Amino acid sequence: MKRGEIYWADLVPRSGSEQTGRRPVVLISHDGFNLTPSWRSIIVVPLTTSTSQARRGPTVVELPSGTSPGKKSFAICHQVTTLDRSKLTKRLGSLARETLQEIENGLKAAMDLD
């Protein structure tokens, strides 16, 4: 598992307005953690196909066509979360460095980081 890869994840249980169900996620945690099998926690950004999410501003990043299965997808950076790596199932692909940089910018906007 490496930073920038996309996996199917089981996001249950969740509550309230959190993204839930089986959906693609982008790994954003440091590869020092990702490549250590005994480190169980993985930080991810969930993906959605909801176009209403796209209007939420700089914390939502549109992914290039064909990046994720199905329709046009968006990374919801304001929904960043930590999962146990057992919740990640099938690897779907990986993002180009430029797209990962856009997600990093979305995370900075969501957390007010410089």
Please give a structural write-up:
Helix content is 20%, strand content 34%. The chain is an alpha+beta fold and 114 residues long. The chain has a single domain (5-111), classed as SH3 type barrels (Roll).
Short description:
The protein has 114 residues and is an alpha+beta fold.
The major β-sheet equals: 7 strands, antiparallel
Cα radius of gyration in angstroms? 13 Å
Count of distinct strands: 7
CATH architecture: Roll
Mean pLDDT: 87
| CATH topological fold name | SH3 type barrels
Domains (count)? 1
Query: In DSSP terms, counting alpha (H) and pi (I) runs of 4 or more, how many helices?
Result: 3
Helix amount: 10-25%
Distance between the termini: 27 Å
Strand content: 25-35%
CATH class: Mainly Beta
Low-confidence stretches: none
List keywords for this structure.
single chain, 114 residues, alpha+beta, SH3 type barrels
SSE map:
Blueprint: E1 5-11, E2 21-27, H1 31-34, E3 41-48, H2 51-54, E4 60-62, E5 74-76, E6 81-84, E7 88-94, H3 97-111
Antiparallel strand pairs: 1-2, 1-7, 2-3, 3-5, 3-6, 4-5
